[in-house]
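Researcher: I'd like a candidate sequence for this fold, 217 residues long. If you have to choose between options at a position, lean toward the conservative one.
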């Protein structure tokens, strides 16, 4: 990073997997090795519904990754499973950061002046007014300090949102003619198998009617 710049990085990653537990372990291990931590986790699935349908597992994670390890973390996402999308973005917050620092400096100087005025104040009404101004100044200092700390945290730790979904078949992304040919053949065979299955079920369904017609004939 260029000296003086305050840059924040964030990414959104979507992953499919046939082996959910293995992929989740890879994600958590990668976060740990990068020196990061999980700030949000929501997980579900992995059970059979009342209708007998298996609900596939899924998890949504928000990970905070040290800025210095952000790119290497993204480079290793192929280990998570089939990455269907990866969107990385950067935001320059330098001007906001500088404005916040300048405001803090001004408020701290103002607090010092008010504290000196309090020491010299002799009139009660003046003292009350100075105390009110000092209280408001301290409140603003705390507010801007919290804002600066938030900026520091965003710069130091990048935010990575990860969606991991268990699937029966991963999304295939053909790259060459032969890849597309194999994918077409595979889809054709699956469609033909579905056709035969539907045909067999149809014959079984019509069999009683055919038997009745045969007996009548």
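Model: Candidate sequence:
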């Amino acid at each position: 990073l260029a000296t003086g710049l305050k840059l924040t990085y964030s990414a959104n990653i979507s992953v499919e997997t046939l082996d959910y537990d293995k992929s989740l372990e890879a994600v958590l291990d990668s976060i740990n090795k990068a020196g990061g931590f999980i700030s949000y986790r929501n997980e579900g699935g992995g059970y059979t519904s009342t209708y007998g349908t298996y609900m596939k597992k899924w998890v949504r994670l928000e990970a905070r990754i040290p800025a210095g390890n952000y790119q290497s973390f993204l480079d290793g996402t192929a280990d998570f499973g089939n990455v269907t999308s990866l969107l990385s973005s950067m935001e320059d917050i330098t001007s906001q950061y500088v404005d916040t620092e300048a405001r803090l400096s001004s408020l701290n100087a103002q607090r010092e002046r008010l504290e000196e005025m309090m020491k010299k104040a002799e009139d009660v009404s003046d003292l009350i007014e100075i105390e009110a101004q000092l209280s408001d100044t301290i409140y603003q200092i705390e507010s801007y300090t919290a804002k600066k700390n938030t900026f520091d945290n965003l710069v130091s730790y990048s935010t990575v949102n990860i969606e991991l979904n268990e699937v029966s078949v991963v999304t295939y992304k053909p790259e060459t003619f032969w890849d597309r040919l194999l994918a077409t053949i595979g889809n054709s065979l699956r469609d033909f198998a579905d056709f035969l299955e539907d045909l067999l079920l149809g014959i079984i369904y019509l069999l009683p009617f055919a038997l009745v017609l045969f007996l009548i004939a």
